[in-house]
Amino acid sequence: MAPGGRVVVVGGGFGGLEAAKALGRAGADVTLVDRHNYHLFQPLTYQVATGGLAPGDIAVPLRHILRSYPTVDVLLGEMTGLDVAGREVTIIAPADRAKGSGVGRRIPYDALIVAGGSDYSYFGHEEWRSQALEVKSLDSALEVRGRILTAFESAEERPEDQEGWLTFVVVGAGPTGVEMAGQIAELARQTLPPEFRHIDPSSARVLLVETGDRVLAGFPGPLPERAARALERLGVTLVLKHTVVDVQAGSVELSQPGGGRQTVPTRTVVWAAGVAASPLAALLATRCGAETDRAGRVTVNPDLSLPGHPDILALGDMVRVRDPETGEARALPGLAPVAMQQGRYAGRVVAARLGGGSIPGPFHYRDKGTLATIGRASAVADVQGLRFSGFPAWLAWLTIHIFYLIGFENRAVVLLRWAYSYITRGRGNRLITHAASAPPRARVAQRSDPRT
Amino acid sequence: MAPGGRVVVVGGGFGGLEAAKALGRAGADVTLVDRHNYHLFQPLTYQVATGGLAPGDIAVPLRHILRSYPTVDVLLGEMTGLDVAGREVTIIAPADRAKGSGVGRRIPYDALIVAGGSDYSYFGHEEWRSQALEVKSLDSALEVRGRILTAFESAEERPEDQEGWLTFVVVGAGPTGVEMAGQIAELARQTLPPEFRHIDPSSARVLLVETGDRVLAGFPGPLPERAARALERLGVTLVLKHTVVDVQAGSVELSQPGGGRQTVPTRTVVWAAGVAASPLAALLATRCGAETDRAGRVTVNPDLSLPGHPDILALGDMVRVRDPETGEARALPGLAPVAMQQGRYAGRVVAARLGGGSIPGPFHYRDKGTLATIGRASAVADVQGLRFSGFPAWLAWLTIHIFYLIGFENRAVVLLRWAYSYITRGRGNRLITHAASAPPRARVAQRSDPRT
Question: Could you tell me the CA-to-CA distances from B112 to A428, B19, B62, B78, B345 in Å, in that order?
């Protein structure tokens, strides 16, 4: 029997989307709320930042994905409030938010699933954010693309002021940082050289700054070392055991292992370090009386519900899940498969609860492996304990990413772009558009900061 | 012998690009200046505005196109000044312009080719511009895309306030207006209906407003009538013999043929009427003592040079060319083939002048025909006097556009998208990104208006 009552799912990322689909399959009435009108394939967003892929290749309208789920409704908006007793969430439309009119709509729910994801943390320095952009959201990735391309243009125009324009600093050597540094190095060494007359783009320095002592610290065995060697072959300079202590308009300052400090002149900084849970985690914790950790993640029960609130579930990067046996709260890796499995699970839990079916047992993550690509035909993989690197890992990476990409047209276009780029080393989407050329003041004004 | 001296080409559109290539082939030193880092295939820009194509499909970095011309240099910037006696142009980089620092670089030339193109004229009402966007530039087309998609989202969210959100007004029934109206109608009637729950997108009204008594007035014989019938079949309402007399935030006002006025509630207006030559035409006219017409076009000699200034040439939408026999100044149609032929011609004239070769005779436009598409598998064509419409015209349209598109990757991707969309009626690039969701104030601040 179809579940009775209305479910509100907040967040159209991997977790929220899977939850909405699971509920839609069960025939439940669902309202899926997201700030954007599209689902973003976040593992490839960094490729937009260097022109390898176009925004539309990796982003699909949520309405389009859910068009064949007649009981699922999509609402463009941001969750800004929660009334636990009255079972209502407050949603503000992006246009109203931009206008500064903060009057949201109150939407009643019988069950609520919150999948707000996470952002990078700037080590408590929010003021670095406008200078050191991330490549997790599509808008920011497009702006990074504009900044990287503008840096080469500026160096070409003023060959006397090259050092800052031709130094690129990537902060954080997790998968995104490693992939981003590799992409910038490829762009500089392989794509751009025939196109410039006054500078040599291949002389650009790409620094990958990491507080820890190795890249891809989450990968097992020999993979971090292999990734490091692959990055160095591409021309990436690894700056390990260094921490960013300041970001200025023309430089970053690093603390050195011995205790000294080092200033690196650079005009382009990409941030891929730290984890800060969505501010919705704090909202849930306050309203439901739950714990949060230092990264702002809220602790949920083994069935992903908030303590004492079986009608409210949360999942993905913004939660730690309590172990049913030890009682210990544990953060799972911030990966798409974790969110997808939790989303499907949460959908089943809520469908069972509203429909009177049997509630599934506690959530268990089935780890199928991890992959990271480093550059053209190079990757590291850890799949079911099997560790490999180089071309076979890249093929595995490519196959899995094409397979999980949503939409036949996107799969075909992305495969075509990668094949083309593999052969020619070209990148077809190197445009400096609107946002990137806006004056800094306008850019800051139009950033929609979920924390404010 | 390679031409001696330096040629500055301003504008990387169809005309400027062909001029730079012709000069590059002759071995001349060329600096090509453009505000954007890409060449835009403008005849298809309107398809970006409805999600049919992605920006990168129709825009290619100028550096990439010119990478195999070693004597051609690309400079990102805007021409803001001209010293005719000293033979120098002033160029401001977009980043400096955005910062408000107006100190440009002075670049010397031995020959100057200006191909600044044109914009739409707002009948003297520049204040309508931010409300009634054009779809000629990529940035504006992306913003139109965001506005159209947001209109459907807003109607879905507030079903009680549908009329304005679901009324789309396109002003001007030339090729761009006709194509744009057809695209919006297809989006509303074919792509979106399965994706909305509270509204019926196919009930949207698409009005094509035209001062004249028919659409595609530049097309001969039965083609305007056939285009009109094809538009009506798609659900476009033709509002002929009406003129826009006011544009407000929630409505447009039209003057009726009888003399009355009519207010149409609408939240989305697309402007494709009138012609205003690039302000560079006025700059050239002032500095060289040449005439301009009401659309701001400067009159050039039969060899495209400015009167009394054989070292300065201008071409494309921003000029009228004096007939070598009658002496009459004539504006050629604002089409890519005109600009391309003039660009190649100007390149040859300058190469001959600087290299001491024989100067070619006066410019003659070879008219190969005109095409306009109206919707899925429908178009009108006038090719070498052969007039046809429907599917054969659409095939001709498709073939020619794919053929002239720059870059193998783009051709393959666009063909794939059109094939996919032909079969499924889908549109893969329906994203509401950054610019569109920015508050109006920030948007206005970051518009780079060539007139200021």
Answer: 30, 11, 19, 14, 14
Confidence of residue A448 (pLDDT cuts 50, 70, 90): very low
Q: Which residues of chain B, if any, have pLDDT below 50?
A: 435-452
Task: State whether B164 and B263 are in the same domain.
Answer: yes
How many CB pairs lie under 8 A apart between chains A and B?
196
Tell me which chain A residues have a C-beta less than 8 angstroms from the C-beta of B412. Answer: 416, 420
**Angle at which helices B408-424 and B391-404 cross, to 10°:** 150
B73–A197 CB contact, under 8 Å: yes
Residues 6+ apart with CB under 8 A from B363: B302, B303, B304, B321, B341, B342, B345
Interchain pair B64, A195: CB under 8 A: yes
- Which pLDDT value is given to residue A434? 59
Domain count, chain A: 2
Q: How far apart are CA B297 and CA B299, in angstroms?
A: 7
Residues in chain B with CB shorter than 8 Å from the CB of A76 are: 150, 153, 157, 432
Q: Mutating which of B413, B424, B447, B452 best tests the A interface, going by the most A Cβ atoms within 10 A?
A: B413
> pLDDT digits over A168-214, tens only?
999 999 999 999 999 999 999 999 999 999 999 999 999 999 999 99
Contact list in A for residue B76 (CB cut-off 8 A) is 150, 153, 157, 432
Residue B179: active-site member:
yes
Inspect the interface and report whether the beta carbons of A434 and B142 lie closer than 8 Å.
yes
Residues A225-239 have pLDDT tens digits of 999 999 999 999 999
Same domain, A259 and A306: no
A64·B433 Cβ contact <8 A? no
* Shared domain check, B238 and B385: yes
Instruction: Give the span between the Cα atoms of A349 and A329, in whole angstroms.
Output: 20
Per the listing, tokens 């790409």 go with A206
Task: Using the predicted structure, report yes or no on whether residue A103 has a pLDDT greater than 50.
Answer: yes
The verdict on B157 and B213 lying in the same domain is yes
Residue B391 lies in a domain: yes
Which of B158, B420, B421, B431 should one mutate to test binding to chain A, selecting the residue with the greatest count of A CBs within 10 A?
B431
Q: What is the pLDDT of residues A352-370, one digit of tens each?
A: 999 988 989 999 999 988 8
Separation in Å, CA of B73 to nearest CA in chain A: 7
Least trusted range by pLDDT, from A51-60, A268-277, A402-411: A402-411
Q: Tell me whether residues A139 and B76 touch, CB distance under 8 A.
A: no
Interface contact flag, B438 A446, Cβ < 8 Å: yes
Tell me, what's the pLDDT at A101?
65
pTM tops 0.95: no
Say whether pLDDT at A261 is over 60: yes
- In a shared domain, residues A424 and A287: no
- The helix (H) or strand (E) run that includes residue B276 is strand B276-277
- From the list B18, B78, B179, B186, the catalytic residue is B179
| Sequence-separated (6 or more) residues with CB below 8 Å from residue B204 | B152, B166, B167, B168, B184, B188, B189
Element containing residue A114 per DSSP (H, E): strand A111-114
**Residue B84: CATH number of its domain:** 3.50.50.60
A78, A143, A156, A179: which one is catalytic?
A: A179
Instruction: Please report residues of A whose CB lies closer than 8 A to that of B143.
Output: 434
Q: Which residue has the higher pLDDT, A359 or A339?
A: A339
What range does the domain containing B211 cover?
126-274+369-446
> Is there a contact between A426 and B409 if contact means CB atoms under 8 Å apart?
yes
Q: Do residues A107 and A88 lie in contact, with contact meaning Cβ atoms separated by under 8 Å?
A: yes
Closest in A73, A417, A434 to B435, CB measured: A434
CATH code: domain of residue B240: 3.50.50.100
Residues A150 and A282 in one domain: no
Contact A294, A196 (CB under 8 A): no
Pair (A328, A251) in one structural domain: no
The 3-state secondary structure of B218-235, one letter per residue = CCCCCHHHHHHHHHHHHC
